[in-house]
Amino acid sequence: MSGKDRADYLEQVCELLWPAPAKVAFTSSRANLANANDTALLVLPRLRSPRLLVPPERRAGSAAVRRYGEPGSVRSRLATRALSVTLASGVGNLMLAGRVLVRVPAGAQTIESHLSSLLGHRVLVSMHIGAARANRKPVLQLLTPEGQTVGFAKVGHNTLTGALVGAEHDTLRRLNAAGLSHLRVPHVLGFGRWQAMEVLVLSPLPVWQKRIPLRPGQLAQAMAEVAAVSGVRHSPLAESQYWHTLTARLESATDDTTRNNGPHDDLTYDHRTHDDRTGRREHAVLQAALGELASRAGATTLAFGSWHGDWTPWNMASTRAGLLVWDWERFSYGVPAGFDALHCWLQEQVVPGRRDPARMAAECLQRAPALLEPLGVVPAQARVTALLYLADLSVRYLADRQEQAGARLGAPRRWLLPALTSGISTLPVTTARSHGPG
To answer: What's the whole-model pTM score?
Structure first.
């Protein structure tokens, strides 16, 4: 994503979070705040390539930078620490030129006034400017002027992101009532609509605590607990509710009547450059692949449970406070057991951009028996589960229109579908249920 793309996105987001009659300006000079309602934010590292907005207040700005730097590489942690110290000293407010200045008339509503009212005390906000993807949305860190992190707010600004924010609210309510023992999840502090957008406020997890290595089997235990949170059922694949849901999702993925057309969709999608014929070809390839998978493995009995939906190393932290896991907006139930383990491994390989995604997708199929063995999935089921995972992820990307949103891995034809079709072609035909639970 280019610096200009980030700058354009930031400008659009600021207009949503500080709507008229507030006025947003981007400036490279310090400016005095005319009244107590005005807001100023530092743009890091620069206006032309923004990645982070932080409050200019010393303690709050330092804390914001420090929190967004966790976790990260050694190099990024050192850079984050240096910037955090600079902001804490007060020098950063003098040295850093890029600013967002918001003039707020008395009585005008802004995201800060809304969140402060919801939490019952004044909060400052900071925001990371993430990479382009269909589900990108404002995620705000909420801080006190003294630098204490008191929550995070997710803002669903269009059809897809609004649905995801609502889904995470429902999921966290369910998980907090489930009495989880192998992982910790955020609590819901508030949820509702503001300015025609869904706003979810979550408690902060103690990610600032010192990281400790995962114990042997700890991750598998946590994933198994999530899989069982709504119960586990066994069924032949072709007879399962999951199979019917997956094929229905594929059918609707290229249906113009189900496309996102809510408020602010233009902030996410580039409608001018996408060729719908490409999407239809991907749909046809995926539909044929699922038909072949049903004929070869439809009789395979699988365990179906819940999954996080986006369990990755950057959505969790192992600390003395336990295994912390966040970003639950993709949670669903009734999927093949083991999806989380496959997703966590594959995303760790491909998201940093150092490895060939198509090769890693193919390798995911080869590694499936070893990845799923700790979860009690036998090899015959593991390969089918991995194929279903690649298919499920492909359907998600098509339905969300990730390629149109500019996501680097948004086109299934470039990395997921080759591995899927090749893997299915080597799968033996199953005429009876495979051995396993159920």
So the answer is: 0.91
